[in-house]
Amino acid sequence: MTPISMPYTAMLIVPTGVGAAIGGYAGDALPVARAIAQVVDCLITHPNVLNGAQLYWPIANALYVEGYGLDQVALGRWGLRPVQQNRIGLVLDAGIEPDLRWRQLQAADAARATLGLSLTDYVVTDAPLGVSLQTADSGATWGTIQRPDSLLRAVEAAIHRGGAEAIAVVARFPDDVGSEALTQYRQGQGVDPLAGAEAVISHLVVKTFRLPCAHAPALQPLPLDPSISPRSAAEELGYTFLPCVLAGLSRAPQFTDRVDAHSIWANQIQTLIAPDSACGGAAVLGLSQTARLITVGDNSTMMQASPDTLGLSALRVTSYLEAIGAIAAERAGVHLDALTPTLLPLRPLLSPPLSTSELSCE
Questions:
Q1: Which of 23, 38, 148, 262 lies in the 20 to 30 Å Cα band around 342?
Q2: pLDDT average, residue stretch 295-305
Q3: What are phi and psi of 350, to 5 degrees?
Q4: How many CB atoms lie within 10 A of CB 81?
């Protein structure tokens, strides 16, 4: 039961690198976030949902929270403190070629001049990060970086010398032109080959420094393909994926230990929305103990972790449209059964029902 004076807060999760039918491509879960934000007071979600390369959308009541930080919030270990604006530190991989580095810097300057964002001077890592991409047996993607120490030194410099309050990382990713995985992804099929490695980078930074962080890969532009899927098309628009990251980080909430009127904690989150087959992550397992879990069936993934297999109580719906309706009904105080064509009669809790003969008057 939610007190009516309490703001209604929901968390929307679409795990990274698991081939989600909605949210597994170039910001294609952003319409879902925009719609859900209209029926809640506050929406907490993560870069995988809101990032669309050079496309993004300002959602006034949405909080942009990196995945590791999202897990910590859902587990009740960290709180969120909304901010007006962060000073963003830009960290560039030393492995980025000069022309591609200039593309990132021009995107950063454009964000300052056109969007009014606050950035520090940039830092280049003292060694190439050496990103490699991997695929698990399940089909999910992940990756490694050979020089995490170089990344952490650069982030530390951005924080202590530049006064950064949030960190944008641009790492040089392997160009995989012509690979089957990339071809399928551009056609709106399969799994994002970059997503898992991106998560490794941002998780490391957030875990170490407890500041907002997001990542944009540096890649050479791909050859034109007129048959690209609309879900992947945002990544075809230019030379950099950095604009959405800078826009998101500019107002990403800070992580906090303080419980006060300005912070948001797990016990203030009423609803969690996730794909039905991807409920095995720390955030879902933790938050589902205190919040209502709504799982969406038609957002299929490569995972096989449904609420039933994990022993979780959930409202299982087919679509995000149904999930939005369920939230609207709850906020209106309308029981979901009342919205169906059949409503079963009440039954006794402690004694058998009276028969017709017992009810008759003689």
A1: 38
A2: 96
A3: -120, -20
A4: 15
